[in-house]
Design a protein that fits this description.
The complex is a heterodimer of chains A (about 375) and B (about 270). Chain A is an all-alpha fold and about 375 residues long. Chain A contains 16 helices and three strands. A two-stranded antiparallel ribbon of chain A has the order 2-3. The model of chain A has no long low-confidence stretch (mean pLDDT about 90). Chain B is mostly helical. The longest helix of chain B has about 30 residues. The mean pLDDT of chain B is about 90. Classes of the chains: A mainly alpha (about 375), B mainly alpha (about 270). The structure holds protoporphyrin IX containing FE (HEM).
Amino acid sequence: MEEFKHFINIISRPKIIFPIILTLFFFVFPPTDLLFNINQKLRLHKIWTKKGGIILFSLFILFFLFGLTDPNFKLIVTKPDNVPIVGLIFLTFFFLWYSMKQAYDNDTKIAEGKPPKEADDAKEKVLVWPDLVYVEFICLILCSALLIVWSIFLKAPLEEPANPAISPNPSKAPWYFLGLQEMLVYFDPWLAGVVFPTVIIFGIMSIPYLDNNPKGCGHFSFKERKMAVSIFLFFWLVLWVFLIVVGTFLRGPNWNFFGPFEFWDIHKLEPLANINLSELVYMIVLKQKLPTNILLREIGGILALIAYFGLLPILLAKTIFREVYNRLGALRYSIFMILLLMSAGLPIKMFLRWAFNIKYIIAIPEFFFNI
Amino acid sequence: MAEEPKQERPSILKQITETQVWNAIFRTGVPRTRRQRMMVVLNNVFLHLHPVRLPKHAVKVKYTWCMGGLSFFIFLVLTVTGILLMFYYRPTVEYAYGDIIDLKEQVPLGIMREIHRWGAHLMVITVWLHMFRVFMTGSYKPPREFNWSVGVVLLVLTMLLSFTGYLLPWDQLAIWAITVGSNMAGATPFFGTSGPGSALLSLGDVNFVHTASDARFALLGGRFVGEATLLRFYVLHCIGLPFIIMIFMIVHFWRVRKDGGISGPT
Ligand code: HEM
């Protein structure tokens, strides 16, 4: 058992788990036809059947119960304020399965030339009283019961009185902002805390205007809108829920990373040897001093950024995104690409950090402008 | 001997529902006929949020997961428990923490704080799941684009409500979570002292953006999380944000109806 725990501790390091999830993700939620065919060949779509769901859930619960036997795991998972996040994980997975199951069932029906399940149901009209009112009433009662039971058995936490002189270690933002706090590891606050949240909000708002595929409106479906679903789920599951889970359960003192079965040791030291791109270019590759002119010093990073946002979209539009470009048109495509590339910036920066210890791509601390 | 006609006493329920008071309140009577069932929805201001008749898929939990409705219900629960909490809580550095302790120790059967806190967590979760359902059913597609955007505002407001409430117990968890969260505001480009471009907003030697005039200061009402912050967050949490979120909810519900009711396959 100790070996198993050790194994889990090791693979759950962001460096290892994140690339694994990243690769797996696009096979489980394939955005393109090619990946979709591979998905079918590997029979990954079987996850979204009753059997697949039950097996997956059992494994999940088993892991959780097993975890509870470990004191370190138990300590963190049962912290009162973390309980909702455990609930969130289970609920997210349940509803993910539930929607994907209905989506795949509908896909099968549509492939056979039949209308989706919802259309069959919709033929019949029912009265709101009693058909809807009683459904709502039951939901409401169940929800109240849950809330009352939860409140009786779990006391709301209250820590020591506020003391501006002693900061707890780690100090964490409320859990729904932990995705942002996790970004702070890779980006400066002006990006992680201000620019990205703003872009995220406007990005989500713009979904209906960017996704101009009329198919799949008003019923669950996947095949007709693979790309849209895949991208949305990527943000929602990987960059939001997953980062929250990491931030809540796996980030300990000094924001160091700890495996789920690892003791939160305050003295754990992580070597910090991060360097900027400019230093890498001038001092390590070219073996000379950094130029004093800021523009000259950062020229590498600036060019990289211009290429990333300026050239890459054009290149993609001519190759793998040709269809997307044709469907969206120039304006929608540009906005879509800016949003997509900005958000891809997070995984890219993570990767650069882990592989090359890159701290900043452009570092102009003189103007607090670091990327 | 003529048989005496059996005098059936009407049931109590019937007696009550035939009184003038009852009939004045519930115009349609117990909804038994189809007509009555339609009238009851039309006549009642709360039920009137709904249409009278719906295609069957729209009333299935399978389709909506009831998440929008539950989000609204939890919001109402939070409003009620929040009002009760306001009876006991004073938003000053001197009293806040003690009042929370009193809530725990002096108030009989007090689970108001628990319901309020866990309810707040739950609401964030249900709103997320609601958004997820709306996405997976493609319900944001025309004609419902605008309502999706209104929804995003609701999501942001929900999280801000939760965020402002986090500070009020005035314990270590509270002030440090808010400190971490609000430190970022200091890095706002141009408007935060440690943000890029803030040095550009100056006239000669005079900086317009400094620690007592930047975005973080506006949020906290001071240079750090203190008395003014507590008051500011309290007012926002109890009055400001609920007021705004209600307006957006009204628009949201109105638009659900005006966009043709719950989405469905065409
Ligand atoms: C405080 C938060 C919210 C409340 C109380 C709320 C409430 C509701 C309710 C009661 C409905 C009726 C259908 C249902 O229950 O699913 C609805 C529909 C809808 N909501 Fe929300 N909502 C909230 C947040 C959001 C968010 C965050 C989004 C998306 C970003 C959103 C987008 C929509 C859309 C597009 C519809 C129409 C769905 C359809 O016609 O199938 N709402 N909302």
